[in-house]
Design goal:
The complex is a heterodimer of chains A (about 325) and B (about 300). Chain A is α/β, with parallel strands linked by helices. Chain A contains 12 helices and 10 strands. In chain A, strands 6-7-8-3-9-10 form a 6-stranded mixed sheet, with helices on both faces. Chain A has a 4-stranded antiparallel sheet with strand order 2-1-4-5, covered by helices on one side. Chain A is globular and about 55 Å long. The N terminus of chain A is likely disordered. By secondary structure, chain B is mostly helical. Classes of the chains: A alpha/beta (about 325), B mainly alpha (about 300). At the A-B interface, helix 4, helix 5 and helix 8 of A face helix 9 and helix 10 of B. Bound molecules: adenosine-5'-triphosphate (ATP) and magnesium ion. Adenosine-5'-triphosphate (ATP) binds next to strand 2 and helix 3 of chain A. Magnesium ion (MG) binds next to helix 3 of chain A.
Chain lengths: ~325, ~300
């Protein structure tokens, strides 16, 4: 794994291909998906050899050799890959504290919903996870976030590489307007120089199938991504995020710009994707949180307008019998 | 709440009485028409010179715009000939200037939009704006001192460099404008895929704003193609055709116009008009193409 991590961006050399972490080969994961979710559609003949499926390879994200490999150590077994441990997290915009002292453990292969009133810091929290937060001028973070036991803010972690492991889907669909559907899906691989041309077709098909968009676009892959409907565009963005092979998917109100039917499709998709990914979803829609998530975290803000975590629990419990009064008021619509 | 009619109207007097036109209303509408009229006149005065200029140049130049003008080199003392040396010269000096200026202007814009802090960006933008306002004769003298004097030789490359100096801030500012229009969400989407910053700047931001960048570049080329002052001290002009001799004097269309318009010979003057028409057609064509495309883009 040291070799892998030591050569960060060799074009055309698919990293992590050797699957050096002693994990089961990717087929196992695929089989597991098929086994647990009969609804998952698979491309016949696609994705059965590791060479054809560079996208789902786990990528080491450390900049240099050494113990920084996120998939290293005890946590490297498949069952726990994608475990996020957030401790004492504070996030600031300049001097304004947007997040105060959040402790949260996010389970792999499950959907965690973040709910809370507008402005309580849900988006900010999500963006601290994949270090998008620090791109805002003056924005800082305190505390630790560990992905499979590795501190993502550690000095040996390259945020660019981290973001390939933690994919993100935004509120508004944002396909690249100059690119075709095909090019949109492989943009992450192409622009990071981690592809072999012969692999791209397979990556496109597999990613689009996983995003439940393949059947709708397979005959017009060369058309512009903007020619799709809003819901299709959002699934295209999900496919685009999947194509780089993340472990974690961060979704910021992914369906809020969509109509109910498109929303339903995204929700079904999330249910399928959680077999293979750790999913964190921000939503304003309680029913949606109740429908798609396994666990729900409720955030609100204090007098200083800093967001904090009120409680996190199994979704069923949050919506029926929460521990905190604040949560009960919020989920029953009495405030927020 | 009553719909449409403000409650203040309904409260006191009957609404209808308040709607009757008064003398003050009439005066206001008079002032309004007068102001509109003056503004309209100003707008006309703004457009008329262009129309007049085009008509004038076409009337004087149309007769001279013939195959000879396009293909024959200059001949001395009113013996006719053409502007071939000047046309070929402009076709070298201007593209070379564009090739030098385009990457500098575009990268500088990319730097201010993508990488620099706000204060640095303001500073760079201010410098570019000042540069746009510098009289081109000064740039000519500057290029003369820097690229001609040391070599004791007027040369075409010095002309290209002078034009490049003029083009860089224009390209930089138009590029910057069009890059700022690229939605931040695309930038974020790219960065969130683990695409490095520099690659995002090039392959997402610049690529998305590319049509605007190209438009800015074309307008800068059109502007530079007509610049005379910077070439007087640098490319200097040449009666002979010079192709590829960048270290030697070279003619250019504006220089050709400048020289021939001042000759005492009718034939020479008429050639100057022909060359002026040529230059005008080029500039108009570029503007129509660029603005037409920009208009379509905006209305979509
Ligand atoms: N770029 C920024 N610069 C400064 N302050 C910001 C910035 N983005 C967000 N904030 C502030 O941080 C706080 C949390 O914002 P955030 O966007 O995380 O809330 P949210 O929970 O996602 O809200 P919503 O549900 O409306 O999306 C708010 O008070 C907001 O004003
Ligand atoms: Mg938000």
């Amino acid at each position: 794994m040291a070799i892998d991590a030591a050569q960060p961006e060799t074009p055309g050399a698919p990293e992590g291909r050797q699957n050096p972490q002693g994990r089961p080969p990717p087929e196992t994961e695929e089989t597991a998906v098929a086994g647990h979710a009969p609804g998952v559609r698979h491309a016949p003949g696609v994705g059965h050899s590791p060479e054809l499926r560079p996208g789902v390879q786990r990528l080491p994200i450390a900049v240099g050799p050494g113990p920084g490999d996120l998939t290293d150590g005890a946590a490297a077994s498949e069952a726990t890959a994608g475990l996020l441990e957030v401790r004492h997290l504070n996030a600031y915009y300049g001097t304004f504290r947007a997040i105060r002292d959040v402790d949260l453990s996010i389970r792999p292969n499950a959907v965690t919903a973040l709910i809370g009133p507008s402005g309580c810091g849900k988006t900010t929290f999500l963006r601290t996870l994949n270090r998008m937060h620090e791109l805002v001028p003056g924005a800082t973070v305190q505390g630790t976030i560990e992905l499979d036991g590795v501190d993502v803010y550690g000095s040996n972690i390259d945020p660019v590489r981290l973001r390939r492991v933690m994919g993100m889907v935004f509120q508004r669909p944002s396909p690249f307007p100059t690119m075709s559907i095909y090019d949109n899906v492989v943009a992450g691989l192409r622009l990071t120089g981690r592809h072999q041309r012969s692999e791209l077709d397979a990556v496109v098909e597999r990613s689009l199938r996983r995003a439940a968009l393949w059947d709708e676009v397979k005959d017009k892959l060369r058309e512009n991504g903007m020619s799709l409907s809003g819901g299709q565009q959002q699934r295209l963005c999900i496919a685009r995020a999947l194509a780089v092979g993340p472990e974690v998917l961060l979704m910021d109100e992914p369906a809020s710009a969509l109509d109910p039917i498109a929303t339903l499709r995204i929700e079904e998709l999330i249910a399928e994707l959680k077999q293979s990914y750790t999913i964190v979803i921000v939503t304003h829609n309680m029913q949606q949180a109740a429908r798609v998530s396994d666990r729900t975290a409720f955030l609100t803000m204090g007098e200083d307008r800093a967001g904090y975590l009120v409680e996190v629990d199994e979704t069923s419990r949050i919506f029926t019998n929460p521990r905190e009064r604040l949560t009960e008021d919020y989920v029953s619509g009495r405030f927020g | 709440m009553s719909q449409g009619i403000p409650s203040s109207l309904v409260a006191g007097r009957p609404a209808a009485a308040l709607l009757v036109r008064t003398r003050a209303d009439r005066r206001r509408s008079l002032v309004n028409s007068a102001f509109q009229g003056v503004a309209l006149l100003a707008a006309v005065a703004c457009v008329v010179p262009l129309g007049a200029l085009v008509t004038f140049v076409v009337m004087n130049g149309a007769g001279a715009l013939n195959l000879d003008l396009l293909t024959r080199p200059t001949r001395a003392l009113g013996l006719g000939g053409g502007a071939a040396a000047a046309i070929l010269g402009s076709l070298q000096i201007v593209p070379i200037a564009a090739v030098i200026a385009a990457p500098i202007g575009v990268l500088a814009a990319l730097y201010t939009v993508e990488f620099s802090g706000r204060r640095t960006a303001t500073l760079i933008r201010f410098a570019a704006d000042v540069m746009v306002g510098i009289p081109s004769i000064l740039i000519g003298i500057f290029a003369f001192a820097l690229f001609v004097l040391p070599f004791h030789q007027f040369n075409a490359l010095a002309g290209s460099l002078a034009l490049a100096i003029i083009m860089v801030p224009v390209v930089m500012r138009t590029t910057e404008e069009s890059l700022r229009l690229v939605p931040g969400s695309l930038r974020e989407a790219s960065l969130a895929l683990g695409v490095p910053m520099w690659r995002t700047a090039l392959s997402v931001v610049l690529r998305t704003g590319l049509s605007g960048v190209a438009a800015g570049l074309m307008l800068a080329v059109a502007r530079a193609a007509g610049e005379t002052a910077p070439l007087i001290f640098t490319a200097f002009g040449n009666q002979l055709i010079n192709v590829g001799g960048l270290g030697k004097p070279m003619d250019a269309l504006p220089l050709f116009i400048f020289v021939n318009a001042r000759q005492p010979y009718e034939a020479q003057n008429s050639q100057a008009w022909g060359a002026a028409l040529l230059l005008l057609l080029f500039v108009l064509a570029v503007n129509v193409i660029v603005r037409g495309r920009a208009g379509r883009r905006n209305s979509r």
